Amino acid sequence: xxxxxxxxxxxxxxxxxxxxxxxxxxxxxxxxxxxxxxxxxxxxxxxxxxxxxxxxxxxxxxxxxxxxxxxxxxxxxxxxxxxxxxxxxxxxxxxxxxxxxxxxxxxxxxxxxxxxxxxxxxxxxxxxxxxxxxxxxxxxxxxxxxxx
Amino acid sequence: xxxxxxxxxxxxxxxxxxxxxxxxxxxxxxxxxxxxxxxxxxxxxxxxxxxxxxxxxxxxxxxxxxxxxxxxxxxxxxxxxxxxxxxxxxxxxxxxxxxxxxxxxxxxxxxxxxxxxxxxxxxxxxxxxxxxxxxxxxxxxxxxxxxxxxxxxxxxxxxxxxxxxxxxxxxxxxxxxxxxxxxxxxxxxxxxxxxxxxxxxxxxxxxxxxxxxxxxxxxxxxxxxxxxxxxxxxxxxxxxxxxxx
Lengths: 148, 245
Prior knowledge:
The structure holds two protein chains of two kinds.
Chain A: H1 19-48, H2 54-79, H3 87-97, H4 99-120, H5 127-133, H6 136-147
Helix pairs in contact in A: 1-2, 5-6
Chain B: H1 24-52, H2 60-63, H3 78-102, H4 106-136, E1 139-143, E2 146-150, E3 162-165, E4 168-171, H5 177-208, H6 211-215, H7 219-244
Antiparallel strand pairs in B: 1-2, 3-4
């Protein structure tokens, strides 16, 4: 039982958990996974119906995402023992992860904007498109530019 | 959680002690995993961006519906659930190995490390089957009015919306990027599983050779465990982004 031998810089050791806690977490993760699967199959069922409601499907997908975040929390806090560490270490890992909030929002926003351009032809201010609208005299240099 | 047991009044930043109450190696493992999380995050977010930019995307319930030895039975999500449970279970055996390490029980560490390695190999076997299924599963697809046979690869996608052709429904080409992202992300994750297995085998050998008993602690098992749990954590998100939503 010579845990203290790891490093002289370690001030104290959190108490050893029991294996009971590990198995409890295993069951939580399993149940969450089964619920996710049930919701995933529900989405398929809705898709097969006559009028699939986009809002309902989006809502179910949101619920599945929240359940996934709960699973991630249990893996990190219990299996990786981050929950047993001191606040300093928890914060040095958790705070940089907040960058993901904007990272995800910005890029999905970008993706749906791209779809909007694709569907509405709002992005058709391409050189070819403009060339068609202009007089022949103006087209020549523009088309040349398109080929470059 | 147990942070309540932190002795009060300690000056963490005055020097002479780790302000994180952890060894150098463990802190650096956390920072490595953090950077790796951003790598995987970037992959999954780029997948999301492209998927958001298309009007139709292959429905996971129809893409991932095969099971070994089940022929053409429609079993949506069944095989990937099996893979998920294999990985969760190998995470449990890993954390049990760490637990035995705390108790300096060499036999216990060996037992659970072997189970963890077997779980990892089983997962990789499942992934190999799934990849083979995609790369060799030819499907009919209507290309410019003619029927062709395409497998799901990084350049071909026969999983687009179906149209009526000569009295029956036939799929049209879907976004080719689907296969690109699928093989890139599951492949990068599979490579992590593979390196995790190698690390765990080295740790098992070192345990058997009594290196950690000599050293007086099993902290290396903990560090390998952090990596292994991270691989499980990434799978939770790959499972979400590719298979569930």
